[in-house]
Amino acid sequence: ALIDLTDVPVTPLVFQVGETPAPAAGSVSAGGGGAPPPSEEEEPEPGAAKVKATGKEQQATFFDGQVTLAIPAGALPQDAVITVELAAEAPEKVPPGAKGASAVFRFASSEPLDKPVTVSLRYDPEKIAGLDPRLLMVFRENPDGTWQRIGGRLDRAAQAVVTELTGFSNYTLFATPKSFADITGHWAKDPVELLAARGFIKGDAAGRFAPERAVTRAEMAALLLRLTGNTELSPAMPTFTDVAPGAWYYGAVEGASKAGLLKGYGDGAFRPNDPLTREQLAALAVRLTGETTVTVALPFTDLHEVSPWAEGAVVSAYASGLVCGVSESLFAPQMPVTRAQAAAVIARLAERMGLFEVIVTVTGTPVWSTVEKPHWELATGEKNYVLLVYPRDKATPLLLKRYAGRTVTVTGYLETGPNIYMRGPLIRVLSVKPV
Questions:
Q1: Are 426 and 388 contacting, i.e. CB atoms less than 8 angstroms apart?
Q2: Side-chain-side CA neighbours of residue 411 (13 Å)
Q3: Neighbours of 79 (CB within 10 A)
Q4: Given pLDDT bands bounded at 50, 70 and 90, which one contains residue 24?
Q5: Residues near 303 by Cβ (< 8 Å), separated by ≥ 6?
């Protein structure tokens, strides 16, 4: 199959804005200039720093903020020691086409981890000049000196990449830009390149992506399974009459069905080689994001072709900006989904699920402002956040209007680039929910 995913952790990292935990007792700031010297029995080697686990939640920063380690309660027994070393200023054996963006750091602990720890590695913007920072991912060094992609989410405010680790080794940051010969000038070029760079999708041996080829239901099952972090299943008795053990997609279809990502038909078949239709794509997008129907007027003249079971999903997916029409007047619900369309929707889904960037959560009251440019703000009592809405998202403005003056929770991404607003920090909104 030409569509594939890498093993990327999918649980969104959600930070409460304004509640960044201070370094806990026992944390160490290596090279930070005012940190207390380590005790004699923990004196680190040159180019290394140590932190002693307290058994409770704690945070440690090393090497002038280049490395931050968040240790959850119970991850290590009390008095276990984590060591972080500067292994190299730059990685060797750089993957083909990759750009190194940080030094190489070696992590080790005196005891095995009982829970994943969160590691943040700061990148050098000059080393990835001109590239989308969302292409950056954490890589682990293999025994032979090569590098293996681990994953990670961009923290724009900290200019860092954050990931969870279940064990320690040598780690660094690479950006791995990728493209294909047949997407130059294509409308889906940006999402295709983003997904390819992060290892979500692949091309063929000739370096083509085939953007107009239809995606089968079996291919989408495999893609969704990896996207959500669910595992393949291989029951002795098949769930569907036309998906037999031994087929390359058997485990993926069984796993996706068990997770409720894709459903079969009333006759007991799954039809793995049938193309996925656009109304089916809308339905799975709504299942993954949990979007609810917001009443909006759809501009399409072919809505009578939407199957009754998919009507609510089509409205919700369109209102939230996840699935668009094939033109201003046509939704084409029965049309096969192309690889380009699948890439665009998967990129939007990954964005909504927090796979590319660290999500922030803020509680406050929506307020309409006409200062500088008409926009929604979130008043928290301490500051106002400017709320930015994705252009295709028609549901969020309606929800903000509905909840104006009420306490809501907004999740989204902090925007750090130049902007026209002077009212406060900017948040690109993912969801609005009443408290």
A1: yes
A2: 16
A3: 12
A4: very low
A5: 314, 331, 333
Q: What span, in angstroms and rounded, lies between the C-alpha atoms of 71 and 73? A: 7
| pLDDT reported for residue 10 | 37
Residue 17 reports pLDDT greater than 80: no
Q: At what angle do helices 339-352 and 217-228 cross, to 10 degrees?
A: 20
**Other residues' Cβ atoms within 10 Å of the Cβ of residue 18:** 11
Give the rounded distance of the alpha carbon of 3 from its chain centre. 18
Sheet of 58-62, strands arranged across: 58-62, 67-71, 117-122, 160-165, 153-155
β-strands 359-369, 14-16 pairing: parallel
DSSP state of 277: B
Total residue length of the chain: 435
Q: How far is CA 295 from the centre of its chain?
A: 28
* 53: amino acid identity, one letter: A
**Counting Cβ atoms within 10 Å, is residue 185 exposed (0-12), middle (13-18) or buried (19+)?**
exposed
Closest to 97 (Cα-Cα) out of 141, 131, 134: 131
pLDDT band at 47 (very low <50, low <70, confident <90, very high): low
Q: Say how many CA atoms lie within 13 Å of 393 toward its Cβ.
A: 18
51, 104, 105, 434 from 88: Cα distances, Å: 20, 5, 7, 48
pLDDT at 45: 55
How far apart, in whole angstroms, are the C-alpha atoms of residue 243 and residue 218? Answer: 9
| Distance between CA atoms of residues 358 and 378, nearest Å | 19
Q: What is the DSSP string of 63-131?
A: TTTTEEEEE-TTSS-TT-EEEEEEEESS-SSPPTT-EE-S-EEEEEESS--SS-EEEEEE--GGGGTTS
Positive or negative: CA dihedral 284, 289, 295, 297: negative
Q: Is 237 exposed, middle or buried (0-12, 13-18, 19+ CB in 10 A)?
A: exposed
DSSP reduced 3-state for 383 = coil
Least confident among 6-10, 281-285, 317-321? 6-10
